[in-house]
Amino acid sequence: MSSQISEATTNRLSVYLRCLNELDAAGVRAVSSKTLAEQFDLNAPQIRKDLAHFGELGVRGVGYYVKDLKRQLRHILGLDRHLKVAIMGAGNLGLALADYPGFRQEGFGIAALFDNLRDKVGQQSRAGVPIYDIKELRKIARRDQIVIAVIAVPLSSAQAVVDKVVAAGIKAILNFSPGALRAPDDVKLKNVDLTVSLESLSFYLAREASGDDT
Amino acid sequence: MSSQISEATTNRLSVYLRCLNELDAAGVRAVSSKTLAEQFDLNAPQIRKDLAHFGELGVRGVGYYVKDLKRQLRHILGLDRHLKVAIMGAGNLGLALADYPGFRQEGFGIAALFDNLRDKVGQQSRAGVPIYDIKELRKIARRDQIVIAVIAVPLSSAQAVVDKVVAAGIKAILNFSPGALRAPDDVKLKNVDLTVSLESLSFYLAREASGDDT
User: Domain map of chain B by residue range?
Assistant: First the structure.
């Protein structure tokens, strides 16, 4: 039951899947770890090591069949199960996430938005995701088989919303709120910090600036 | 001028900085790489290796002074330069990013939103970021010394907006649009794929489900 696969590995599997999607769309049938690494700025031994966790996915002398590896990665990542997702908070961030094209493309079903504001409840996102009263979370989570909740409410109400999500029996939470939230041990809580991506650009600009001086 | 520091390292430096912020807020004065690793589920040799790139930041027998290391990391990441950011697109995602608290906390200045819709231009985000006509990008980028642009427009217009950003002389771009965009070699383009975080939850749920069967 306990997973030996780190979150960093899982993140890399997602990246490999993205690359394979691109190759597949371009009509490429097979690819070696070396070519994959060169084309997408990855590390070939790392690719082989990551994929070796899941048995013999490659074919000697060929590398990987793109469609096969895609299907296997989707299975490993649980993407063939069409998991249902609820977005907590129908503000700008919640509405943006509800209609984020990548979620649908990868087979997630954004089933519902939840909010507590009367003029939001009963409305829907531009793509048609219905907004429900957060009081109905437990009932709708059960009815729609929602297994992942995305926290997109302000920090001040984030912990209270997480507690409601946990009480509704949802075991996986993706948190976009900037604070440190608590959940029981049997609930997987993953924090997304958008600042990290901005900081790597800042680092790049700082290096460029100091390079100019030398 | 060319950086030997990988993007993965930069991302980890950002994570270390988050941890140090928490320790500092809790009144902790010094911390060893071992304690840092244990407390935040990191890897101690990796921490030492990452920080060693930047000279002797630790003190023998003490570890790292929290405030000192924080200041040094902020300097390394270029966060003491108060970089100005423009958000391209004043839809739900753009407005959410303009008011995202983490950006401000880490010293980024969200100077402007840009859109081409007449009823958006002249308005502002809830936190007061002004929305300008995208035609004014070059002028305002120069006036406000904007050095980073965040792409938060639909895929169909993303490349055209990137081209305008490049033409305005902005050298660092953070892209939230799901497609593959092109920029010249002297422009750093970083893609954020929000699906990756959702997929690691999906993987966790898939493992739990298969664990239940054994």
Answer: 7-76, 82-195
